[in-house]
Amino acid sequence: MATGLSTYAFFWRGSEQVETPMTLEAMLEETAALGGKVFQICDYPAIETFDESRLTALRDRARALDIVLELGTRGIAPEHLERYLALARLLDVRLIRSMLYAGEDRPTLEQALQRLEKILPALRQQQVTLALETYEQVSVETLMQVIETIDDEHIGVCLDPGNCVAALELPEMVIARTASRVVNLHIKDFAFSRAPGWVGFQLTGCPLGDGLLPLKAMREAVSPEARGINEIIEHWLPWQQDEASTCALEAQWTRHNMTFLRSHHG
To answer: What CATH topology corresponds to 3-263?
Structure first.
């Protein structure tokens, strides 16, 4: 098991919203500086434009820092996943996180099974695990039906209980239903607050330990240490009033969450 960061921990600092966005290489360096052992390049389409020399330099730097790289994308179209398998080969990646849907591409259960069966031989051959994430657009039951029907160690669950709250699927239920098939953990805490004027609620991120994520119960159910499942820190941090305060708070949350995870192991 390794603990580390996702590009989602650099959501604002690496975005076009700031004057000088952080590069992927700078994110990798910060992951190492904070003691992270894994860095997940997730939903970062620019990686598809990197040439081979930049990809191999990134791989070599990660190795020198003793950091495992993971990839993340959306969708299960075989040709798209093949592109990510090619990136995985160059980056020495053994896990790709994805989602059943990608924009308007929303396969039926039958189509999802056909697509995954088609890519499965390549996953096996390259020894790469595909981690399909829990989220509100696909019910946990449907996701598990897909994974249990395929029934192969190379296709499992990326568990993020916070994503399912919008579909009224409670974290404890999501954890219990998926635990045995989890291959990757996304760790982000979240909380409800009253919307302005008390009209409805807002669900946003918060520092780890301050919100509704049942971290202890999730770890007990999944046993990441015993099963070698990586824990990847993400944030749902709303934009603050300006760039400086947003970036400062994002960096503070990242430091806090890394420290919190390490001090609450087991």
So the answer is: TIM Barrel (3.20.20)
How far is the C-alpha of 47 from the C-alpha of 123, rounded, in Å?
A: 20
pTM, rounded to two decimals: 0.97
d(CA 161, CA 134): 7
Element (H, E) at 71: strand 68-72
What are residue 94's phi and psi, to 5 degrees? -115, 0
> What is d(CA 112, CA 118) in angstroms, rounded to the nearest whole number?
10
Radius of gyration, CA atoms only, the chain: 18
Q: Which of 159, 130, 155 is nearest to 145 (CA)?
A: 155
Tens digits of per-residue pLDDT, 76-134? Answer: 999 999 999 999 999 999 999 999 999 999 999 999 999 999 999 999 999 999 999 99
